[in-house]
Amino acid sequence: MRSVLIPLLAFSAVAGPAAAETRYLAYDASDRVTQALTRGITLEADRGLFGAISVRRIISTSNRGSADIRRGGPDAVRRALPAGSPETSVYTISPDGGGRGLSRALCPGADEAWMVLGRVRLGRPMTVHAVGRWPDGGYRHCVQLSYNWRGEWAVPPASGPGGGDAPTP
Predict the structure, then answer these.
(1) pLDDT (tens digit, 9 = 90+) per residue, 49-68?
(2) How many CA atoms are closer than 13 Å to the CA of 144, on its beta-carbon side?
(3) What is the rounded CA–CA span in Å between residue 25 and residue 85?
(4) Residues 6+ apart with CB under 8 A from 136
(5) Which of 14, 56, 125, 139 is 20 to 30 A (C-alpha) from 103?
(6) What is the spatial distance between Cα 41 and Cα 162, in angstroms, rounded to a whole number?
(7) DSSP letters for 41-95
(8) Are 90 and 71 in contact (CB under 8 A)?
(9) Amino acid 21: pLDDT
(10) Tally of CB atoms within 10 A around 85
(11) Which H or E run contains 53?
(12) pLDDT one-digit tens code per residue, 90-149
């Protein structure tokens, strides 16, 4: 058994990153609060060998803005979520490019902001929480955003005028 397990683990360590594929997953806002901030979003994500999806960039479907996000953040972010929230994947919003504007839109007045997502699944709705860190050092929940699955882009969303806002079937 041990002779099979070691090569299998070595293969998965090497093949995991090599087998990752980039996906573009589109979502529409499903409630008034979410619609006030955005009509929809597209997630640029990597799908690993075993099907796990890791998000690396969030793209505004309507405003053509985007921000890089990376997995990880302080544990205090999870503790700031409303009681009973099942979302656990913390993503740090990069302050570069559109990240600063995204942080300000989600958590006005905060020094930093994070997004907390549940498990991203194709064809399923998604809830996103924004948590900010204020000048006093406290972490506070800013907003809960709710999205309905819209579809998957065949290629990245167009960034020019008239780029459309519907996924390719």
Answers:
(1) 777 888 999 998 877 689 99
(2) 12
(3) 23
(4) none
(5) 125
(6) 16
(7) EEEEEEE-TTS-EEEEEEEETTT--EEEEEE---HHHHHTSPTT----EEEEEPS
(8) yes
(9) 82
(10) 15
(11) strand 53-60
(12) 999 999 989 999 999 999 999 999 999 988 989 999 999 999 999 999 999 999 999 999
What type of residue is 135? P
Retrieve residue 71's tokens.
Answer: 């997995």
Express each pLDDT in 13-60 by its tens digit: 544 444 568 889 999 999 999 998 888 999 999 988 777 888 999 998
SS3 helix, strand, coil % of the chain, rounded to 5?
A: 20, 40, 40
Return the residue matching tokens 């390719």.
Answer: 168
Place of tokens 């099979």: 4
pLDDT above 60 (res 7): no
Q: CA dihedral in degrees (35, 102, 81, 29; nearest 10)? A: 20
Q: 6: how many CB neighbours lie within 10 A of its CB?
A: 9
Cβ pair 139, 80 in contact under 8 A: yes
- Of the two residues 118 and 80, the one the predictor is more confident about is 80
Which residues lie across from 45 on neighbouring strands?
23, 55
Letter for the amino acid at 79? R
